[in-house]
Amino acid sequence: MRRGELEHGPRSEPHPHGVETAATPDSLSLSITVEADIMAACREARLLAERAGLDRTATYHVATAVAELATNLVRHAGGGRLSLRRLLTPPGVELIAEDRGPGITDLRLALSDGYSSAGSLGCGLPGVRRLMDTFSIRSAPGEGTRIEATKWIRP
Ligand SMILES: Nc1ncnc2c1ncn2[C@@H]1O[C@H](COP(=O)(O)OP(=O)(O)OP(=O)(O)O)[C@@H](O)[C@H]1O
Ligand SMILES: [Mg+2]
What we know:
Shape: globular
Bound molecules: adenosine-5'-triphosphate, magnesium ion
Radius of gyration: 15 Å
Number of strands: 6
Helix content: 25-40%
């Protein structure tokens, strides 16, 4: 798959990057390898969250979480895949960031505020955990990392 290309769910037609179609895809999967992919992922996440019915604040939270996880894919994992899916019962949005990078040895440390192996702020993962309603992370050194998070629509 080309960099930045979208894989939509079964209900939609494939379309060139960034072009809206009449169909409303309720899932997508993005290959994330370079900085430009982060912006694209952020934008697609915002659109999907809006379509799914999240309010402005929740949409912003999802887009921010996507920006952080996509940045980590580029910066720490040498690239990976970011998938978003609309959930119906209960309604919400699920996001999954997956890579086959070096993995994380100490998850507790990686999830603590202020820890960064890259001289950065170290608030990405703990921030995502706070912004989303559910958060789970699986990682094995040498095998990669998988993060799943969901945001529910509040009635
Ligand atoms: N996908 C990943 N693969 C391997 N290591 C990761 C991955 N995501 C995060 N990490 C590790 O977890 C640490 C914490 O991640 P976090 O996003 O909180 O901070 P950061 O990316 O270093 O800084 P910031 O996000 O604040 O700019 C990273 O420094 C890195 O060591
Ligand atoms: Mg980060």
